[in-house]
């Protein structure tokens, strides 16, 4: 049941983003920034963590979850290091995800022939 819930929640988030892309003139990069900022704001309000506990990976994997992860890292690092934590927290919290994306992207490029769109 957890897999079904995660699939439905993640699919609903992606469907809403697709509708936003189709119905507005916003560029994909701006929509991605909007999602990260929305996840950060919902984390600040204390809404996103209970949503992640309920929805599982369906809520933690999309960009909304990445924004929430950045917020939690900054909040924890500010508590530990003060104002310096504002700059260190996001990097510390998201380093594994960003490193994984870079490493697996590189491995994928070894197996496939990446090309620029025409």
Automatic annotation (TrEMBL):
Keywords, comma-separated and alphabetical: Membrane, Transmembrane, Transmembrane helix
Pfam families per record: SpoVAC_SpoVAEB
Keyword match Transmembrane helix: yes
Domain of life: Bacteria
Membrane-spanning residues: 6-24, 31-48, 54-71, 83-107
Record InterPro entries: SpoVA (IPR005562)
Protein name: SpoVA/SpoVAEb family sporulation membrane protein
Organism: Fusibacillus kribbianus
